[in-house]
Design a protein that fits this description.
The structure holds two protein chains of two kinds. Chain A is mainly α. Helix content of chain A is about 65%, strand content about 5%. Chain B has six helices and two strands, in the order αββααααα. The chains are: A mainly alpha, B mainly alpha.
Chain lengths: ~280, ~180
């Protein structure tokens, strides 16, 4: 099994920013997006998020799985909740509305009547939901493709996470190639003994049990290795002093600009939402 | 000898959190051939047993970080982006079983295994409930929709995987505990 991160240098505008500035700005935008149900405002956020995707120079071939997943997930939720049942948030903001399509069915024998009306309000609300989900999805989709996995540790330390927590993330990224190799060696060894991972006989429970000969050796070997690593780190007095990092991050003026823009957007959105009560569900009449 | 705090975060916890997270990511990636039909983004991941087991074996913080960082790494490996609320849910799925870490005396004893299985179910419930409920806030769907589409498929698949694989991992780990004397 070849396990590799999706990152490769793309010489894109996005990669020129400090990763800390990107995380901070992304979270500021996330909290801004979820304040609104107004299609006009959500369209602005959608454009910003999609602009980031284009500026990141990532291709459809690389990201199509993620987009398809997002489309399937959001469509199931929106069709069930907004188009069919019309309950939840939509019930609170829309109420009844002008039907664009409706039908009535009377079920024979029991005499039940089913009435359904698809209103213009529901369709606009569905659009608002799509814009919200896709803006948030696009905002964070670019991260694995445009952020070097080697600098996640120092990035999160720079954002304010404790040393040990940041080092845990850094270490986890570094363990992945080793553990992926161990997993592949285990799969090969078990296959050489007649193990069939893809065998579908025996139902779901048997399939899960069949995974045990792969998971157990890899897990136990890594725990044994972990004991040695922890001892080695203790011998080197890990955690006694503030940690230094091999990679150093330094803010440049565009990073301050990005953080400032993110912060400003969030402040404006908070004022709009809670100060001026703007941003509730809106559609053109 | 002084008893170690349940919430201690020393060198051992750092190393096992990192190993657990990397394992969760690699095994999720390597065993994602089982899919639940018609359940949005929920795949059948036998690897969910890893944060549960790491919580039981090394404590709640290790369980939490294994689930939270591991889920994020797994999404990064697959190129799905970053879904912090599902990371939080996966973290809780490891944290809750970890709450009984200090009460486990025999990893192959029937009483400890039954106790662990109960916590696996509670952990999967809490973790997936928190992650699914975030959809009320993000997508604006109603409670019934998120329970049907997000919570139920994830919760059921995770408890099935956890209930089958966690005892197997516990019995295997008891041999290591006996060997290392820890």
């Amino acid at each position: 099994m070849l396990v590799s991160f999706q990152y490769r240098p793309r010489k894109s505008v996005i990669e020129r920013f400090d990763p800390r500035a990107r995380w901070i700005a992304s979270f500021a935008l996330l909290f801004s997006i979820v304040l609104f149900w107004d299609v006009r405002l959500l369209a602005v956020f959608f454009v910003i998020a999609m602009a980031q995707v284009f500026l990141a120079r990532i291709t459809w071939k690389e990201t199509h799985r993620a987009w398809i997943l997002l489309i399937i997930l959001s469509t199931i939720m929106i069709v069930v909740n907004t188009i069919i049942t019309g309950s939840g948030t939509i019930a609170g903001v829309v109420g009844s509305g002008k039907p664009v399509f409706h039908f009535e069915i009377k079920i024979p024998l029991v005499g039940w009547e089913i009435r359904y009306a698809l209103t213009r309000e529901r369709l606009w609300f569905a659009l608002a939901q799509y814009l919200r989900v896709f803006s948030i999805g696009a905002l964070f989709l670019v991260i694995p493709f445009t952020m070097d996995p080697r600098i996640y540790g120092v990035t999160f330390r720079g954002i304010g996470l404790p040393d040990k927590l940041a080092f845990t993330m850094d270490l986890a990224f570094r363990f992945i190639p080793t553990l992926a190799r161990d997993y592949q060696v285990t799969v090969d060894a078990q296959r050489a003994r007649g193990f069939e991972l893809e065998k579908t006989e025996g139902g779901l429970f048997a399939q899960i049990r069949r995974v045990a000969p792969l998971i157990v050796p890899v897990t136990m070997n890594s725990i044994l290795a972990g004991e040695d690593i922890a001892n080695a780190m203790d011998l080197r007095c890990f955690g006694l002093k503030k940690r230094t990092w091999v990679e150093a991050l330094k803010y440049q003026w565009p990073d301050y600009l990005l953080i400032g823009a993110g912060g400003l957007i969030l402040i404006i959105c908070l004022i709009l939402r809670f100060g001026l009560n703007f941003g509730n569900f809106w559609f053109p009449t | 000898m002084m008893k170690k705090s349940l919430w201690a975060f020393g060198t051992r916890e750092v190393v096992f959190s990192a190993i657990g997270a990397a394992l969760y990511a690699v095994l999720s990636y390597g065993t994602n051939m089982l899919q639940i039909a018609g359940s949005g983004n929920v795949s059948f991941r036998p690897a969910v047993a890893i944060p549960m087991f790491f919580g039981l074996a090394f404590g709640p913080i290790v369980g939490f970080l294994t689930g939270a960082i591991g889920n994020t790494l797994s999404d990064f490996l697959s190129g799905y982006g970053f879904y912090g609320w599902w990371g939080l849910g996966n973290g809780l799925m490891g944290l809750v079983p970890g709450l009984i870490h200090q009460t486990i005396t025999n990893f192959r004893g029937a009483a400890d295994i039954i106790k662990s299985e109960v916590m696996v179910v509670v952990g999967a419930f809490v973790g997936m409930a928190v992650a699914s409920l975030s959809e009320l806030w993000v997508s604006g769907v109603d409670f019934a929709t998120t329970v049907t589409i997000n919570f139920m498929p994830a919760f059921i698949s995770n408890i099935v995987n956890g209930l089958i694989l966690v005892p197997i991992l516990m019995v295997a780990y008891s041999a290591i505990v006996a060997r290392s004397g820890r």
